[in-house]
Write a structure and sequence with these properties.
Elements lengths: L13 H19 L3 E3 L5 E6 L2 E4 L1 E7 L6 E3 L8 E5 L2 E8 L13 E11 L2 E10 L3 E2 L2 E8 L1 H4 L3 E5 L8 E3 L12 E11 L4 E17 L2 E9 L2 E2 L4 E7 L1
Antiparallel strand pairs: 1-2, 2-3, 4-5, 4-11, 6-7, 7-8, 8-9, 9-18, 10-17, 11-16, 12-13, 12-14, 14-15, 15-16, 15-18
Length: 241
């Protein structure tokens, strides 16, 4: 019986294996920061920490006079453009007025959101708003919806709140009956803390903040633009969650 042995020279293959391993490790490390869960229309539905999703939902909202109604970014409501590059997610969208924006015409309010995972459990949101038609509304807002199952007994503390007497409030004290005249304060940010969750939100400058109760949940409205919108007006806002 003749037995043949074939020797394989692995020296030429090892570098390739090492390179592949390094690329895999680097790409995996980059994805570890990809914690925010962002929908294609721009809403953040939570931040994933150690595999667990810390739920909330953001949206951009155009609110009509006296808080009678609002138009919000949502699935199949607008025609957003979504792009992702590394830890950056960019969404461009807009509103065509009180009825929303699904036509191919230029929106009355255009937005570009850049969402970046900057650290474990921390997301930076940069919002550029552009007005293309003169209009009067209650305002344009970045809204954060807080699920009742996690935040029903939460306490809110505002950072550099004005008036200072309103800097602390419990969510149980927010009543839907006051939605047309909601709680209002100017602040640099806020901390929302419950037995189950803690959410820290800061702004790059002092902003008007409103609290409402809709469909059982509590909403934090951060003003981006005021009531009198003039064509050509542009505003940039940075929010860290």
């Amino acid at each position: 019986m003749l037995i043949k042995f074939r020797f394989i020279d692995y020296s030429k293959k090892i570098p390739a294996i090492i390179i592949i391993s390094i690329v895999f490790i680097l790409s995996t490390s980059a994805n570890l920061l990809a914690q925010s869960e962002v929908m294609a229309w721009g809403n953040i539905i939570g931040i994933r920490i150690d595999g667990q999703l810390m739920e909330f939902e953001t949206s951009l909202r155009l609110v009509s006079n006296d808080w009678d109604s609002f138009t919000a970014t949502a699935k199949e409501r607008q025609r957003p453009q979504y792009d992702r590059e590394g830890n950056l997610q960019t969404v461009s969208t807009g509103f065509g007025g009180q009825g929303g924006f699904r036509s191919r015409t230029e929106p009355h309010i255009g937005f570009t959101q850049i969402i970046e995972d900057v650290a474990k459990g921390t997301v930076s949101v940069n919002i550029n708003s552009t007005v293309t038609i003169d209009t009067i509304v209650e305002g344009i807002f970045f809204c954060i919806d807080l699920p009742t199952k996690y935040y029903s007994s939460a306490a809110i503390q505002f950072i550099n709140g004005s008036p200072s007497a309103k800097s602390n409030i419990n969510i149980v004290d927010i009543n839907a009956e006051n939605n047309n005249d909601p709680f209002k304060i100017t602040a640099k940010g806020l901390t929302i803390e419950s037995p189950q969750r803690q959410l820290n939100i800061t702004f790059d400058s002092k902003s008007k903040v409103f609290l409402r109760k809709e469909l059982g949940n509590t909403q934090v409205y951060v003003e981006l633009l005021g009531s009198k919108l003039k064509k050509g007006k542009k505003v940039e806002k940075n929010i860290t969650i």
